[in-house]
Design goal:
The protein contains nine helices and five strands. It has one domain: 3-Layer(aba) Sandwich (NADH Oxidase), CATH 3.40.109.10. By secondary structure, the chain is an alpha+beta fold. Its EC number is 1.-.-.-.
Length: 195
């Protein structure tokens, strides 16, 4: 891979892409499967792939999610075609014999829950970022957010498991007329250096 993507692709993924507060339209199940089939190729440490995703679409699922949302996120989340619960599995290591078969990677994490917590959160967050980029690549608008009660989400969607919620992402078609002015970003020299 040596050629840079065309400018319009970089715009769609980064420069002109925006976080939307109001999302409508339809997102079919096939699109959600294509979304996962893109994001799954993003790299994680030792191919851990700890992220787990719940695509909240049905009214019944929205009713389960609703009580966990902060007041400021309730209306926009209930109106979005899909809300993704981006979560991570603290027992991700059980899949490592399949995902990382050339070494006994499972043994690196067995019996060490604290080590798994760090790895699962870090690599699950990476996979959540890949979800955002994959959604944009497929022409969807996104609205990632915190602003919810993780314990309530975990109780409603992951009870009896070692899966923990991280953040939420609303998916759909954004209304550009409802966007806030774009917030600035820090310059290279403010945050980075080359040594």
């Amino acid at each position: 891979m040596t050629d840079a993507l065309p400018a319009e692709c970089l715009d769609q993924l980064f420069r002109t892409a925006r976080t939307h507060n109001e999302l409508g339209g339809e997102v079919d199940d096939d699109t959600l499967r294509r979304l996962y089939d893109l994001l799954k190729w993003g790299p994680t440490s030792a191919n851990q792939c700890p992220a787990r995703f719940v695509f909240v679409k049905s009214q019944a699922a929205k009713d389960k999610l609703g009580p966990a949302l902060d007041e400021g996120n309730y209306a926009k989340t209930m109106a979005a075609p899909v809300t993704v619960i981006v979560a991570y599995d603290l027992d991700f290591h059980e899949k490592l014999p399949v995902l990382f078969p050339h070494a006994d990677a499972r043994s690196w994490f067995a019996g060490d829950l604290e080590k798994r917590k760090v790895q699962a959160f870090r690599n699950g967050s990476l996979q959540g970022a890949y979800l955002l980029l994959a959604a944009r690549a497929l022409g969807l608008d996104t609205g990632p957010m915190s602003g919810f009660d993780n314990a309530k989400v975990d109780e409603a969607f992951f009870k009896g498991t070692r899966i923990k919620s991280n953040f939420l992402v609303n998916l759909g078609r954004g209304d550009k007329s409802k966007l806030f002015p774009r917030s600035p970003r820090l310059s290279f020299d403010e945050v980075a250096r080359i040594e």
